Fold Alanine--tRNA ligase.
Amino acid sequence: MEAKKIRRTFIDFFEKKKHHYVPSSPIVVKNDPTLMFTNAGMNQFKDAFLGNEEPKFPRVANSQKCLRVSGKHNDLEEVGVDTYHHTMFEMLGNWSFGDYFKKEAIAWAWELLTEVYGLDKDRLYVSVFEGDESDNLSMDKEAFDFWKEIVPEERIIMGSKKDNFWEMGETGPCGPCSEIHIDLRPDEEREQVPGNELVNMDHEQVIEIWNLVFMQFNRLSDGSLKNLPARHVDTGMGFERLVRAIQNKSSNYDTDLFSPFLKALEEKSGKKYGVDEQTDIAFRVIVDHIRAISFTIADGQLPSNNKAGYVIRRILRRAVRYGYTFLGFTSPFLYELCDLISENFGDIFPEVRLQKDFISKVIFEEESSFLRTLDNGLKRLDQIKAELSSKGEKVIPGEVAFELYDTFGFPLDLTSLIARESRLSLDEKGFEKEMEIQKTRSRAASEQEMGDWVSLRPDTGVEFIGYDFLEAKCHIIKYRTVKGKKGNQFQIVLDKTPFYAESGGQVGDTGILKSDYDQIRVLDTKKENDLIVHFVDKIPEKPEETFEAIVESNRRKLTMNNHTATHLLQSALREVLGDHIQQRGSLVNDQVLRFDFSHFSKMTDEEIQQVEEIVNSKIRENIELVEQRNVPIEEAKKQGATALFGEKYGDFVRVITFDPKFSVELCGGTHVPSTGRIGLFKILSEGSISSGVRRIEAITSEKAENYFRDKEKLVKEIQEVLKNPKDLKKAVEGLIAERNELKKEIESLHQEKAAGLKTELLSKVKDLGNKNVLIAKVALPGADALKKIAFELKNEIENSLIILAADIAGKPQISVAVSDSVLAAEDINAGQIVRDLAKEIQGGGGGQPFFATAGGKNINGLDQVVRRAEEIFLK
Ligand code: ATP
Ligand code: MG
């Protein structure tokens, strides 16, 4: 059975059992402080489990894109080294939200695996939670009894908390689980050692394929467990592992999910897969990582230097490094696999097909720049090797290995490999120590202690009423304190709220909450999954009172201007630059709007002007807002609404339209009732922020007005300075031309003067027989002129000793020049002379035997310089 059919069969099976199919949520998580990437199918249903949100369907089935490279679930180091952990993988799941529980979940899982997929019952093992004293939990007898009805008891294994109690993170929904494992070893081996001895023993051929989690608890921050409002089922089956089991392969990579990639890589590298273990690891790392990288970029996360972006960058670098070290790639190669990603996954995940060119461009730039870094790192390593060998040492110190890791992205194994090749060893302990120091430093910086929510009222979900109201009466449902290094944060959830929570680029509202007893300030509003969390300056004294929630309306209105202007800008960009324009990020607040979009070249001045003209003409048309709430997503798409990749949309969406022929977008933000409110639109800058992504910053309404007023004021001021000429530009041009003329004139005057001076000086030369001595006081415009004239005189006068005491625009300076012939014949040195004479002007200097200069402080000393020189050289 082909992989595609296997996936389809799973969904069909559960649809027949009344499950509703929901698409995968994006791999990059927004609005969740505890999670960067989706690491399990359940993430998108977290609020339904916690009771923050009514589940839309009691039964759901899906295939979720997951990434396990950070946080509680981090498999990165295993990937490629083994054959069944991936960075990005698909998790097939069926779900019950307060509907069926263990009995059905267990029976259906077994039916699907053995009867539909036809897996051999004798190869399957199941596990059951054995209980845990520290959590005061007893064995999962219920699950055990259901299993006993379908599998012989010797195939049921009791598992510890580590394996059989599933938790999403440090806190959150959790519960006991039953895993299904498969033994894929050949018969002879199975006869020798029974499979149940190898379950959960990291055996390559005895692996877990499916985990049935029975969600019952919420883990609180103090470590205690609280019962969830209802009991749920959350199952997760690794799709790649299932495919391998059904296709009867000894590695996930031998299935049709990966084989096209391995083949392409064999062709590109000229190396064979399956010959050498180290090369094989490199093959697996690369074909695994290209999926993770492509899918996350498709969901809007670009490689960068922090947070999620940095995780992606590290995955990409790991792939490049393996390709470079073991497959001999010295130029970019990963980006060429993007076509295959599109071909193989584009049907189920259209985002990788539609953005193929963009993804491959981003990867190309990123790997090119990392290859350059690698090169520099290797050069640095050469230096280090040379230093070590000059000192006769043979160990690369830990700090050096860490520098290579930190600055050049060299992981320890690469440095140690190169060290071995050069017969050096490496101080791994020292490296670990440096690593620990860095970790402690960054941990300390970000440490936060989340307090648990204190509930005041039943949690029935939060209603946002801020599209229609800026003020409302409301109640606090719950509150908590978050302790951080920089002081405490106070957070409040209201039953209904006019405060807009930061999302879709639009900043969160600020304002106040007021009761008869309290008045507190709302400093920011953010989403946490589907909760709307108000960040306040303190928890009210009497939190159970009724509060008046008041949004700071002017700030919100200015923000609305900018948000609507962003929509108009996006459509104008499409008109001017083309349909490839995709939003890559945005920021909308009361000051500016920032819009990032995919485009490969700098916009010309004309293009920018055209865009401004279109937006401003749409503002003048005063187009009315058409806001549709709760539109079925398919219907919205039919209307031509622009959706964003990597954004999580529900089945019902909000559609914001300003002229159905111009701007139709899926958007949860707040907008002006008609475009005329925006008043005016002005682009301030356009530039590149990373490969293929450009950023426009613009302003609207009063800000834009002020901008033009400031410009006008500046022009006026310049006009006044120039005594109000009729034509300002001509006047300035005239000034510049005049200035250039004057400059030329001054230069020629200086030259004339210098020529006159020279003639005068030549007449003062004293012939002493063995040498010609010139001692004089002069006035010159600059030090250069003094040097020039000293040299010219030296060239023109034979056997010369020239001493000039100069007044350079009020500053004393001395130049001494001596002919080579004089130097050769006498014990004379310009440097010494100048140092000696400089005393008269309270200065110092020096130079070479044939030419030296000195500056000083005392201008009145110049006559004395002349006198002394004459005493020494003319007497
Ligand atoms: P393992 O012990 O093998 O790492 P797990 O206990 O971490 O698995 P779960 O968190 O229960 O796995 O996830 C559910 C299913 O997802 C697993 O049964 C497995 O089939 C699959 N799975 C988990 N991690 C990975 C991974 N890194 N790559 C591919 N599939 C995975
Ligand atoms: Mg795991």
About this structure: The mean pLDDT is 92. The chain has five domains: 3-257, 258-370, 462-551, 556-709, 764-873. Residues 266 and 272 are 6 Å apart (CA to CA).
